[in-house]
Amino acid sequence: MQIFEEMHMRHRFMLLGALLIALLALAACGAQEAEEEAPMAEPEAPAADMSDSPYGEAPMLAEMVAAGELPPVEERLPVEPVVVPVVDSIGQYGGTWHTASWWAGMGNIKMIAYDPPIRWRADYNGYQPGLFKDYVFNDDGTQITYYLREGLKWSDGAPYTTSDLQFWWEDLATNADYGDVTVPWYGFNSDGETMDVEFVDDYTMTWTWDEPHWITPTILAQGFWEFQDRIMKPRHYLEQFHPAYSDNEDYSALLEATQDYFRNPDHPVITAWGTQSMEAGVRAVLVRNPFYWKVDSEGNQLPYIDYMDIEVVENEETRLLNLSEGKYDASFRDGSSNPTHIPFLTQKAEDGNYTLYTEWMNGAGGWPCWLINQDYIGDGEDPDKDAEIRALLRDVNWRKGVSVAIDRERLIDVVWDGIGIPQQSTISPQAWHFQSPEGQAVNEAWQQADAEYDPDLAAQRFEAAGFTDQDGDGWRDLPSGKSFQLILDSGDWGGQVISENSNIELKEQMNAIGIDAIVNDLFGQPEWGSRQTEAKYMFRNCHASELDIWTYPDWIFPLRGNRAWPLQGRWRQTGGAEGEEPLPGSPAAKLQALYDKGIATGDQEERHKVVWEAVQIHIDEGPFTLGGAGDQPMPVVIKNYFKNVPSFGILGPWAPGSPGNVHPEQFYIEQ
Asked: In the chain, what is the straight-line distance between the N-terminal and C-terminal CA atoms, in Å?
């Protein structure tokens, strides 16, 4: 990174980096080669000497302090640094974390540098303050007050205060002339006007609405996109591009500067590492943030690791080979996200000098699974037939019949080589709504609902729906006698290969029960998206996983123009301007009412109970998303010298910021 300023003056690491490399090369001369037993040949660096300070720091930063290029560590930390508990032991400073990304945007790496205002807990069971010190609601949930940590600094040393948040809100989000960063969806009152935002002082900010917003703080905890992409805007850096504060006549320079902070080495960050260099689509090098605001229990400033070196490798087979050969120090989604790779990686573990962590889960409630369109409109060539198909897809007997007609054990063997459990589609079994004994019982009932293979019961269900073979051609017909063909839209949701294989297997199993089914391959086609939003699909393959349904409600509540209710969801999303209003007493109407009940409830345990009520509708009147399998593990590969990685985690849903929520800043490389 073009290095960090102290009080708006940049220091540069490049010379230091070159010096370190030269020193390391000299130190390595005469040492025995141990490429598989150690990472880069960087000097041993247990937590730094704290004889002159209550805090320790990395040797590379201590050298900068000694050279007068950086303030002492106690001046770089906030008044009350956040103390991060280590997983196993106090770490050692130094080293480079080598890993990969499969796309130029490197979203998987942004998930490692995860530092939102409110964050997911490391055990995935709820939230806690993160970058912000605290947040407090008023009595009716219409106002929230955020308290920032005093003395926070950007990676260049400039203070981080509510002035930066004011710049985001007033100069970017609500600035109609700018347009790239807009008001987030939770930032509006019921009448469409923006919420009231007050910047009380340097460390206090309030948001006020005309109705309760109990879930809004937790939205800020989701992934990198809600805070880091949208709100992490350093005023002191970006003002130089803004027409209101510079000689620029338009917003083009500002747009370029704010398009993606991760690709801009000059952009200050608040995270543990920031970009030092970026070769788009090829490689990125991240460097430690010298003003990072966390310490371990002994006062050592984090992170322990100096650098991250990320190569972009789009080809999955190449990443898998690199992973198996021990090229990556720690890989979560990075080298492989395919559970079927686990046996191969297990076989190669000894030669690759790594350990395969077997309790990191995908968190899938359905993988594969299929959306069943409750708003089907067809292609318009035969409106009467399209209406009859919609009625069939809405028929609970028909949907339950299809569900029990699936041999999920066979599907798992064919698609997953036996990995995963047969189940109905749910959200993540590890979701915090289901952690209590009562919640676990609800989730288990949902997983088992109509999930046992029973072709005789399927035939009875079809008979009750009037779905029989009326012309003797071997295929079941619509109740009117018109022919029926079940179209299975296939895309890349959940992975192209998994989608293809699961759709082919479902087609064959549907054929076996007398349903004429075909696979509609839409991989890479615009129709893959448009057929969902326009409600033209019948079945659509998907991957269902969510840990907090209130922040991403679509799997249970029809609120937007997607999932199983594209038109009824759009009606809700647009306030009735578009889509179709749910019929009174229909599943969609009941689920929308429950959502309103939940978000108006201030007590979290009571909100969990509302989720259970909604799940019961899915059990009784569903499935609306048809499940095949779920709860697969993920191939997490950790080199044997890479320490403080917890044994358990969840990687399927991106919302909790995993692995960022388990504090990668306390990972370390044993020298």
From this structure: 24
Enumerate the CATH 3.10.105.10 domain ranges in the chain, comma separated. 366-547+624-630
For the cut 90, the answer to whether the pLDDT of residue 83 exceeds it is yes
Residue among 534, 529, 538 at smallest CA distance from 491: 529
pTM of the entire predicted model: 0.90
Whole-number pLDDT of residue 376: 99
**CATH 3.90.76.10, the chain: domain bounds:** 118-254
Taking only the tens place, the pLDDT of each residue in 503-524 is 999 999 999 999 999 999 999 9
Q: Select from 337, 332, 396, 346 the least CA-distant residue to 364.
A: 337
Q: Domain 5-110+271-361+634-669, CATH 3.40.190.10 — does that match?
A: yes
Token pair of 301 as six digits = 């400033």
**What distance in Å separates the CA atoms of residue 633 and residue 497, rounded to the nearest whole number?**
17
Provide the mean pLDDT of the chain: 92
Determine contact, residues 293/78, Cβ cutoff 8 Å: yes
pLDDT range class, residue 53, cuts 50, 70, 90: confident
Q: Which residues contact 51 (CB under 8 A, 6 or more apart)?
A: none
In 107-233, the DSSP E strands lie at: 118-120, 127-129, 132-137, 143-148, 196-201, 204-208
Predicted pLDDT of residue 467? 99
Architecture of the structural domain at 366-547+624-630: Roll (3.10)
Q: Does residue 234 contact residue 289 with C-beta atoms inside 8 Å?
A: no
The pair of three-digit structure tokens given for residue 650, joined into one six-digit string: 């969840």
pLDDT at 98 over 60: yes
Are residues 189 and 211 in contact, defined by beta-carbon separation less than 8 angstroms?
yes
Pick from 615, 417, 607, 408: which is nearest to 498 by CA? 417
Measured distance CA(563)–CA(275) in Å, rounded:
36
Helices 566-573 & 587-599 angle (0-180, nearest 10): 40
Indicate whether 420 pLDDT > 80. Answer: yes
CATH of domain 118-254: 3.90.76.10
In this predicted structure, the answer to whether residue 634 has a pLDDT above a threshold of 70 is: yes
User: CA geometry: angle at 438 spanning 432 and 440, to 5°?
Assistant: 55
655 has pLDDT over 80? yes
How many Cβ atoms from other residues are within 10 Å of residue 8's Cβ?
10
Q: CATH 3.40.190.10 in the chain, residues?
A: 5-110+271-361+634-669
Q: Strands, DSSP E only, in 313-364? A: 330-331, 354-357, 359-361
Neighbours of 469 (CB within 10 A): 12
Task: Read off the pLDDT of residues 566-590 as tens digits, 9 standing for 90 and up.
Answer: 999 999 999 999 999 999 999 999 9
